[in-house]
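FAQ: What does the model actually see?

It sees only this:
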Amino acid sequence: MRLTSLHNPLLKSIRRAVARGRATEDGLLVAEGPHLLAEALRGTWQVETILGTESAFERHRTLLADARSEQIEISTEALGAIADTETSQELLALLRPRDWSWNDLLRQLTLIVVLDGIQDPGNAGTIVRSAEAFGATGVLFLKGSVHVSNPKFLRAAAGSIFRIPFVEGAEAPWFLDQAGKSKLGLYALSPAARSDLTEAKLSGPMAIVVGSEGAGLSPEVTAGCEPLRIPTRTVESLNAAVSVSIALFETYKQRRYA
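And it is asked to produce this:
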């Protein structure tokens, strides 16, 4: 089977999903390039369909041999028209995300990263990457944050979202209620906080909350958390992804040497 026409229902569905940064009508997420496909194949998501040019199928023969998925050849022109990247990588996968719950985010020593209204896909993806790197047990996307289906987010997360448990679209009151029931310490990163991150005890079950650089933390979340600031010199505040990465490393360090 070879697809060449953009009027094909599958290609029209993919193009709509990419343009909106959302899932397809069938609930599938679009991931571009061999790197994301390789990461998906070793993750927990289902790789349902792979579309690629004839040359891509030949070039990535070894990678595709590990994929027990439908493989559809597509013309270079058609793939370029539906891709999100400026330069098509000639390979595109349709993925079905794993369905996680709040309990999946909890472990014996819980560490949840909470995104409060972070809409920038690059920042959000980098945060998820750092969450996996420093041992977070899950990620929670509060309502108003970027969707996991956003292609730019998927590229920035570089495969981490395929492995780490996550829940998205949660309301702040629900999160605070669940965190209370789970007896988690709640810490919010804020440049206006009086307490320094390095002075906090971060060795217990906990969640780290970060807000967007523009709007900051929502009032509800702020009221339910202990604010912590990252001490800096001359620079007033840091990028959200940088702040979370520093906080996660400090948590990792405290737990490792506790």
